[in-house]
Design a protein that fits this description.
Low-confidence stretches of chain B: 1-28
CATH topology of the largest domain in chain B: Sulfite Oxidase, Chain A, domain 2
CATH topology of one domain in chain A: Cytochrome Bc1 Complex, Chain D, domain 2
CATH superfamily of one domain in chain A: Cytochrome c-like domain
Number of strands of chain A: 5
Shape of chain B: globular
Strand content of chain B: 25-35%
CATH class of one domain in chain A: Mainly Alpha
Distance between the termini of chain B: 61 Å
Number of helices of chain B: 8
Low-confidence stretches of chain A: 1-17, 208-229
Protein name (chain B): Sulfite dehydrogenase
Number of strands of chain B: 21
Shape of chain A: globular
Number of domains of chain B: 2
Radius of gyration of chain B: 24 Å
Strand order of the largest sheet of chain B: 2-1-10-5-6
Largest interface: A-B, 92 and 108 residues
CATH architecture of one domain in chain A: Orthogonal Bundle
Order of helices and strands of chain B: HHHEEHEHEHEEHEEEEEEEEEEEEEHEE
Keywords (chain B): Metal-binding, Molybdenum, Oxidoreductase, Signal
Mean pLDDT of chain B: 93
Protein name (chain A): Cytochrome c domain-containing protein
CATH superfamily of the largest domain in chain B: Oxidoreductase, molybdopterin-binding domain
Oligomer: heterodimer
Radius of gyration of chain A: 27 Å
Keywords (chain A): Electron transport, Heme, Iron, Metal-binding, Signal, Transport
Structural class of chain A: mainly alpha
Pfam families (chain A): Cytochrom_C
Chain lengths: 339, 421
Amino acid sequence: MLKFLSILATGTLLLTGSATAGSFNLGRAATPAEVAAWNIDVRPDGQGLPDGRGTVEQGDEIFAERCAVCHGDFAEGVDRWPVLSGGDDTLTSDRPVKTIGSYWPYLSTVFDYVNRAMPFGDAQSLKPDEVYAITAFLLYANDLVEDDFELSHENFTSVRLPNEDGFYMDDREASPIFKKRNVCMTDCKADVKITARAQVLDVTPEETETETEAVSAASASVSHPEPVIAALDDALIEKGAKVFKKCKACHQVGDKAKNRVGPILNGIIGQQAAVVSGFKYSKALKKLNDDGLVWSDENLDAFLTKPKTFVKGTKMAFAGLKKEKDRVALIEYLKSHSQ
Amino acid sequence: MSERLKSPTRRNLLKGGALLSGAALTGAAVPARADDPAITNLQPWMQELGDGVDAMPYGAPSQYEAHVKRRTVEWLTADRISSINFTPLHELDGIITPNGLCFERHHGGVAHVDPAQHRLMINGLVETELVFTMEDIMRFPRENRIYFLECAANSGMEWRGAQLNGCQFTHGMIHNVMYTGVPLRLLLEEAGLKTNAKWLMPEGADAAAMTRSIPLEKALDDCLVAFKMNGEALRPEQGYPLRLVVPGWEGNMWIKWLRRIEVGDEPWHHREETSKYTDLMANGKARRFTWEMDCKSVITNPSPQAPLLHKSGHTVLTGVAWSGRGTIPRVDITLDGGKNWHAARLDGPSFDKSMHRFYFEFDWDGTPLLLQSRAHDSTGYIQPTKNELRAVRGENSIYHNNAIQTWHLRENGEAENVEIS
């Protein structure tokens, strides 16, 4: 009933006739609020930009907290995560570095993408002012503005990226390859030599891994029930598995887990802090290790509530889990991966 | 009761076969061929009862096919979520890719969308901005079409030289399935296009909120909003419950988990059509909006992951060919690195912008071969060599590598990815 009233209130309920322009009379008119909720895209001419503003300085701070774990403090990129700054004059080199400064044609692309898809694993969590600030910082990181610059919906379209004119419309069909030609079928060349070989590089994934997996997959198809650890709550583990989706951009658990942006979390409960081999911990986490901290239900709960409050200086770029039930479920899930 | 053999693995089977034929060859004039235990021994499946009809409510391949699966190349991407895996082309035949083997490319992982909570919105330059539920979409007239979907970066690792040893890795960012869906034109007409409408921006409901700009002519021509693949619901990794089908055009445009289509008068120049999916040329300039997938082919067997275990004798060579601009009327095969070419036999249905299957049967004399396939499409375009392509593209363009692939088949039946003069 309430819902019905609210539809009436917005004035979009059509009492008679067809709501649609087509002949099927299927679908219904979208409400202005519905369109506004999804219509977040931004174009080079500024269409779609929300009102807001942010400075390089603000952006620097937000970037360090939310973005630097993958993209680096100066947007230089960590591991294989995208490099966002530098790369000037590399587009004709053997190894082009395609960054916002060196390659991207429009600043609107930066705003739109950060706004819709970043931070990785926590999309659409940034407020317009924060997106303006991050975008301003990225301009600064590419030496395109000074450190006192403020970006806003008012001055946005006055900023141009250096490589705007570096693009042209697909013209493949004008190339010689598209010319009609006759192909030779017999005695086409006298001599053939091998000039490059994949085995020299040796970067193909090993086949042996497939074979061992094949055996285990075959025996698994008999479908034995998973062994259940008696003390744990299956329903809670299942909920925790869902919560873990927020973590898995950076962390892995299970038999094949590897260190990624974050360390492997198998057996984390009861484990001393910062002991996963091969992972580069922040100074703050190493100090916890020195202090002899062992992860328990209680301190992990506190850490997960507000990571940067519990461990000042952690490089974990995660705002925290506000709901207690999410934290409890997640901890139960992590317990189910006890090595 | 004779001693039962353990179930042989596939590899043992192949070894056993080779031994047997070897024994037959070296035998006396009246061959004293050893009895084949596959016949003389009672196999467990001949005696014991099998599974009942309730054992597998949703079927799966034989346990002996467990090696047939999508595989990834870990070093290609920073993590496994915004990443790619590859279709095992060397294990398939015909033209249809089974749903569970269709390669995956995600930018924010696989979204698991509840169809009851899924909506498709059409907004922007239309008479009425509309919202459809899945039920609404199912009430539009449907079409069934078979199309290939190829990632623009398929073979992208091979620009600078032969790199990955297996057609799964060099050519496996492609699949070919039958889609059931509603012509996008009907949905747009339902909303009513304004006269200044020129571009569409489809958007996904995943954590990447994937977007691309598509010209209106293409949308009105042959795009589908699909909900089924190969007869069943789309797989989550292919965009369940709804994906855009953009026939012949690069896979990145086939927006999965399709939730919105905005109609506009200009392209949006979003990340996936500026920073990515633009083709950098040797002079430092880049082509944008390179939508069509050029005509291409590859020999899937033999290939590095599919050696010729039978050694010399009658040999079946097979592969696939496709073009984003039409059908494939002709494929040429060479066994000697391009000195001489032969017509391949195309078999199976020939559909517009679909994969085609070709075969070439020959007697292999056991000497090393340099194998290539060269496809011709219905526009008259002929698949170029790698060097022809490099001459006009340089080596930095990542995308749209449709060059002829060479496999070096050695005496022992193993094949390697190579380049030749």
